[in-house]
Amino acid sequence: MKAIKVWFVAGLVAASSTGCEKILQEQPQSQIVPSYFNSQAGVLGGIAGVYNDIRSQWGTEGFTVEMQAGTDEFIQGASAGTPVPYTYNGLNGSNFGSAWGIVFQDINTLNGVLQYGQTIDLPEATRKQYLAQAKFLRGFWYFYAVQTWGDLPLHTQFITVPSQAASRQPAAQIYEQIIKDLTEAAADLPNTPTAPFLGKAATKPVAQLLLAKAYLTRGWLNNTASDFTQAASICSDIIANKSTYGLDLWQDYGDAFNPTNDYGKETMFVSDHVLDPKYGYYTVGGAAGGGAAQNLSPWFTNWNYPNNSGINSFKNTSGTLVNNGTSGMIRDSYYGRPYVRMRPNSYKWTSGDNAGKSYFLDQAFTNRTVDSRFANSFYTVYISNVSITNAANTANNQRGIGYSTVVGQDTAVWLPDYEVTGAPQFVGTRPFKGIVVPPSLWNNGIFPALKKFMDPSRGANFNDPSTRPCVLYRFADVYMTGAEAYFKAGNTTQAAALINVVRQRAAYRKTNTSAQNAAAVTAMTIQPSDVTLDFILDERSREFFGEWQRWHDLVRTRSLVRRVKAWNPEAAPYVQDFNMLRPIPQYQIDRVVDGPKFPQNPGY
């Protein structure tokens, strides 16, 4: 993808089934006309523009919230903003749908590429590869959209004349088009990234994975056994040919999120973000404002450690943590920006079937001493990055001693995943220089932060957006998608075998001896009888927590309402079956004034 960024064309056609933007209704001035796509530059420009628009969603705030809020995994952070996406209470077309206009703008652009790019003067193999990129991207956007909104406008021809009429076609027709596009794309895409589509752009295995996901999702929708079998077969084929595709799992789960491995063997498909002001997304050193194409995902799940790490914090008579004293941390690039938008769902239920349990620790990340994914996914230890002197007689210093913290050595905040006697200022009877915050003291302002996407490369400009790519698909997803498909096809033996590959990788720790790793593998290995839908969903939490997948996971498996009611205290009172589709944006409905009214999804 990096190689084609130079071809980005602003102002791609917006005249599509969205009913078109008002600027086009009043004064059509599209920069793209059919003849534009009759050249290599035009075709590449159209494709690059669509890749750019993926960047304008993945990694941005509104889109990230839409993909993860209102699930079993996340509840609101202290700075969540509007609670509506988290609770479903009042959710409607005026406060949802950041990607709708982008989706149909891009689909129209891709239709132009496919319709007029057939005759560009290029070698046949090269032209096929370009058109395969366009087919993949059209399938990609339609798949995202049909999962999100259900029935959709279906267009495969390039629209040049603005229209104020639009209609929705059944999801079944959308899936037919998705499967056709992805099947044809997989046939013509190269096995590995090939110029000019370098980095981690679409390749044959990426198209195959998305095709498997489409079959799996359609299978759930219609309870179609053949779709499950097809999805399982595709995933098995990708795994069997992983060396051909240059794909594999890292031995250590944590290495999948090491910035040096962002374009490595486990990464399949990304949305690029680059440190280059010529693209106009931000000024180096000018900080980030959350606008289009800025990757701020490292920080949405980060708590306000510079403000809420008071060195003399204490537990009041109600058992609540009270932040007090000088903060033991200052903002830096390693621990990231404290956006505090959402937090892991560590709410402990006091009644019902899950009394005494939280989703985060007691359902998802249960075997934390063996399974490395909790430790590799969350910050639980914050090392002092500023020296603080705390006199023995300072208010609320209960330790009975005075001391100074040593930068780079002392722990400022420890968030253990179990209860610690004496917290927050003691470990047992031993005074602790920083503060200890066990699960009973976590709240919407202090909690383990997701560290998978952190970007310490910001350096002195740590308020700038991240330049790490957003990884949309990892090779681990091939195993988990295949396992789910085999489960639905009735083959729990093969489902368990695929899940075990992922789980046994998670058992590995660099700090273990060979014997310890072998014992951990045994402890992590499951049997076919262990494979249930809820086990698969829990395993997807462990593997993909925070990776823009959870809402679609729960919708695909028809589990959204059940799982949210079971685990999410904020959304449980409000979530309903109709929430398995998102509301159509109101601007789309308002702009369709010719012919039948554009229908809203039921319940909104």
TrEMBL record:
It is found in: Cell outer membrane. InterPro entries: SusD-like_N (IPR033985), SusD_RagB_dom (IPR012944), TPR-like_helical_dom_sf (IPR011990). It holds the Pfam family SusD-like_3. SUPFAM superfamilies: TPR-like (SSF48452). The keyword Membrane applies. Keywords: Cell outer membrane, Membrane, Signal. GO terms for cellular component: cell outer membrane. Residues 327-604 form the RagB/SusD domain. Residues 24-216 form the SusD-like N-terminal domain. Transmembrane segments: none annotated. Belongs to the SusD family. This is Putative outer membrane starch-binding protein. It comes from Spirosoma oryzae.
